Automatic annotation (TrEMBL):
CDD domains documented for this protein: Ser_Recombinase
Recombinase domain segment(s): 161-306
Name this protein carries in UniProt: Recombinase family protein
Boundaries of every Resolvase/invertase-type recombinase catalytic domain copy: 5-152
Highest taxon listed in the record's lineage: Bacteria
Membrane-spanning segments: none
Length: 546
């Protein structure tokens, strides 16, 4: 009797459920049932999605499970309940039909499932009723919270902000409330005073808090700017907490994944801000007076307008193209303040690695790559772009040189490869005919046909590579032709083009600029040959860019 291959699938939809070990309880129950049925489980047969919503089908473990089902490597699947597969009824039906169609038996722990039409109907009805009940409960909860917020009930708020402690109904004599934590409240009052009265920046407030050893809610001495900004914007500190500041809605489609992030988000829905006019005020004990809170609000608005003016006034030619080779973070433009310039006004700034900013990473420097003067790096990169525009044929010549260098000297041309493939395919046909007529036994046939298939595959890969190479030559020839036409129009004016034209040309030709300690590498979208004046390499020195 052939042993069945069993697998389990478990899912929790929130980080809180993950930390509460509800995923572990699911896995334990599934493994117990699987053992009772006399099946064993390998790590590859355990599929778990931790912190992923059931409202979407794009989940890492579910994707792997569906691939395994399609490959026929699973005979029986154990799931705690249908809503662990998906929250939506339509998704449940889709997945169950897909799993069954592949010949896989599916077992739900919380209810038996049969194979008759009546069982399918019962499952579908239960799924529709469960989806309706969930929607009804969510709507009742939302309406109930709004009603409680209008009555001034603190229990509808998500949690007490820094400076307060939440007292529940049980401990508060039947009424939930915020209680002031005086140690934290003193810190909040000082921050409001620094911003609203002394007019210091949020960064300066963070530095003062760290120097004084003030602790965050998590017990750290490093204060993030976003944390302080959130405190200053929270109306609860002036005596009125806000309910309904955010709403949940579907996520828009992603054009590309966030750098260093997941291809797909964990949840199908996102959280979005709601206009202050729609907030519901809930009275709480104030920590600062209304006048100081309003002064801080005005100061933050002034800072915002000032930052916009700076952003419009200070432009960086290579912004968005610079990458640190040491830590992988981007470089950004940073203007020189008058204090750091010893009171003298400078007409340049610096490109600085994000990884070298300690305030971004809890007071620690992730990168020691030096900052680079903007004017000198801009000039060096523009000089490389000018070199390409002066002679676009260099691109085609360099591409051909690299293709020839990478090609195997003994490799055949496309016509020779097609001839070899034709011979091998005829040989494969004769071999199959001989086996079908009984002239070749199975023990001799299988290794010979395997060897022929491998040889055919190798020749086909070479042919495909040559076809790609030919297509690239055609595309490159068209690109160079267009670039030559464009260069002919602007060649005599390159030395006089303005900043915006330089920026557009650089973004047209340059893919990125890599900075690594003392070297820069300009990575073109189509690589030109190295400049001999740069020492015969694709990299330039940062020695003159400090």
């Amino acid at each position: 009797m052939t042993a069945l291959n069993g697998a389990i699938y478990a899912r929790v939809s929130s980080e809180q459920q993950t930390s509460d070990n509800t995923i572990a309880s699911q896995i334990e129950a599934l493994e117990t049932r699987l053992a009772q049925d006399g099946l064993t489980l390998t790590p590859d047969e355990r599929f778990t999605d931790e912190g992923y919503s059931g409202a979407t089908l794009v989940r890492p473990a579910l994707e792997r499970l569906r691939d395994a089902v399609a490959a026929g490597s699973i005979d029986r699947l154990y799931v705690h309940s249908p809503d662990r597969l998906a929250r939506r009824y339509a998704y449940q039906v889709l997945l169950i039909e897909e799993i069954r169609r592949a010949g896989v038996e599916i077992v739900f722990l919380n209810r038996p499932i049969g194979l008759s039409p009546e069982d399918d109907l019962l499952l579908q009805v239960q799924g529709m009723v469960a989806e309706y009940e969930r929607a009804k409960i969510l709507e009742r909860s939302r309406r109930g919270k709004r009603h409680a917020a209008h009555k001034g009930t603190v229990s509808v708020l998500s949690g007490a902000p820094y400076g307060y402690r939440y007292i529940g109904k049980r401990d508060g004599g039947g009424v939930a409330r915020y209680e002031i934590l005086e140690d934290e409240a003193q810190i909040v009052r000082r921050v409001f005073h620094w911003i609203g009265r002394e007019r210091v920046s949020i960064g300066e407030a963070c530095r003062r808090l760290q120097q004084e050893g003030c602790l965050t809610r998590s017990g750290k001495t490093a204060w993030d700017r976003s944390t302080v900004w959130g405190i200053l914007r929270n109306p609860a500190y002036s005596g009125t907490a806000a309910f309904g500041k955010t709403r949940i809605g579907p996520r828009p489609a992603r054009l590309r994944p966030v750098r260093g992030g997941r291809e797909q988000p964990r949840r199908a829905h996102g959280v979005y801000a709601v206009a202050p006019s729609e907030w519901i005020g809930v009275p709480v004990p104030p920590l600062v007076d209304e006048a100081l809170f309003e002064a801080v609000r005005e100061q933050l608005e002034q800072n915002r307008r000032r930052n916009r003016q700076h952003a419009r006034g200070q432009r960086y030619l290579l912004q968005g193209l610079l990458v640190c080779q040491h830590c992988g973070y981007a470089y950004y433009g940073k203007a020189i303040s008058l204090s750091s310039a010893k009171g003298k006004r400078r007409d340049y700034a610096y490109y600085r690695c994000c990884g070298s900013d300690a305030y971004r990473f809890g007071g620690e420097h992730l990168c020691s790559n030096p900052q680079v003067r903007t004017d000198r790096l801009d000039e060096a990169v523009w000089r490389e772009v000018e070199r390409v525009l002066q002679d676009p044929s260099l691109i085609a010549a360099e591409h051909e040189r690299r293709v020839v260098q990478a090609r195997d000297p003994g490799a055949a041309d496309l016509a020779g490869i097609e001839t070899q493939l034709a011979k091998l395919r005829r040989g494969m046909g004769r071999l199959i005919d001989g086996y079908a007529e009984g002239l070749i036994d199975k023990a001799d046939f299988e290794p010979r046909v395997t060897g022929l298939r491998q040889r055919i595959k190798g020749w086909e890969e070479q042919a495909e590579a040559l076809r790609d190479e030919a297509a690239q030559r055609v595309a490159l020839s068209l690109l160079v032709s267009r670039l030559e036409d464009f260069a002919a129009q602007v060649r005599d004016q390159l030395s006089a083009v303005d900043w915006s034209v330089q920026r557009d040309l650089i973004r047209l030709l340059v893919k990125r600029v890599e900075i690594d300690r003392g070297d820069i590498t300009v990575v073109f979208r189509v690589a030109p040959p190295p400049d001999p004046s740069y020492g015969g390499s694709d990299s330039g020195s940062l020695h003159h860019c400090r």
